[in-house]
User: Fold this.
Amino acid sequence: MSSKNCPESTRQKMINMMYLVLTAMLALNVASEVLESFRIVDASLTQTINNVNRKNEQIYGAFDAAYMQNPTKVKEWKDKADEVRQKSTELVTKIKDLKEQLVLASGGFPLKSAEPGFTLAPGEPFIVNSKGDTVLIKKEDDLNTPSEIMLRQKKGTDLKNSINEYRDFLASYLEEGSTLRENIIKQLDTSDPPINLKEGGEKKTWEILHFESKPLIAIITLLSKMQIDIQNAETNTISTLFSQIDAASFKFNRLGARILAKSTYVLEGDQFEAEIFLAAEDTTQQPEIFVGNTRLEMRDGKGIYRANASQAGTFKWGGLIKYKTPEGNINSYPFEGEYQVGRPSVTISPTKMNVFYLGIANPIKVSVPGVASENLSVSVTNGRIEKNGDEYTVTPSKIDIAGKNTAISVIARMNGESRSMGSMAFRVKEVPDPIATIGGKNGGNLKKEEILAEDGIFAELKDFDFDLKFKVTQFDLNLSGAGGYVKMYKSTSNKFTTEQKDQFNKLSQGSLIYIDNIMARGDDGTTRTLAPISFKIR
Assistant:
């Protein structure tokens, strides 16, 4: 039933060629012989329309039969085919109504409204409207009415827009780049023809090309051809959709039992749950699954096994899947698996040290085996805790040297319930005092050139893993001169003052530098008094 290349039959090719020849003859003369030829072509096209329509009805009937046998498998494709049927019927009906409007406007009339005793003469032209009524054509050579309706009343533009919508709709159901899709797009093409320089280079629209200055019977024949193009496109589209029913079916070449557990790790007192299913199984057929002698509850072709986790340990289990083959035989497929039961526990580990420091964000990691991080709720009894990605930061609010008032607690959401996973106590200490340094030294010998090269005093936290900084805010500089004379010079920042630097220039070997009253402020908001430092000039 499928068609990949949308081929035209020999009959259809001959009809198309005859239409082109007759259209060319119209440029010379609308002779009775030409009109007769169009009547013959249209009659042939009408026969072809009926044949294509019967073929389409057979395909739709095949959809209905397949759906009755297997609704689950066929529904998706039948729904698409039904939509194609609706869109095709709407467009074909529009074309039939256009034919009727043209015939009636040119003096034609329905056969049912004819005078009593009226008989249809052999060979007299007629059309059948969308309601199945016969409408007689009285003026086949009418050149004005078709142009008036199709061009000036813009019925041709309306038809073109409808064909474009229908073409795009069919293309949406076909594979991008496929030959069938490209052929249908080409077959229902309504683009304007290229400019012909030999004919004066006049630009023509699709509507003018098809409906300008042509007799009524030619327009009727043209509309019949469009009707065939639409129904042929319909045929190829629904044939392709029908072929997808089997293409979407599972084809078995190997069968095997599979177990899919929600988790192979469960907590004591909780419940273990797993799905047992046959790989590559057809969801429209359900196997029978047994664990021991117990037949399992089925859900979407899968057996649901539950076991109460009453004690910790590793437990093995297994069973049998029974499946009916297409020949009606019953095949059995054994399976086995295992699961672990553990006691509730939680792992909480500081990422940098085993204590918290007051006034700063202390990073920690929290994890519970078998539970995703987004299902954990973590709290602290001293201070606040914040989540940053997969980690947390704890900022304590007060000192807790013994660790009696600071604890991290974890709640896990499991199977729709909240369960406590435990807690862990932490100590809270103050950040240690930094030390004052000049040129990285905390005291000892110093060359005069070295101190002259430095700008001031810095506060350093030695061997402290956190990125915490202190800045010196003041210090007193004491210098000893000849005879043991000592003079003090103040600074209200971490920088050496101009006066202090002048005194450095006067230092001699053996001079002593003593710096005290050193104050520093840290990122944690505290102000510390640092230990004095001293240097000897060498």
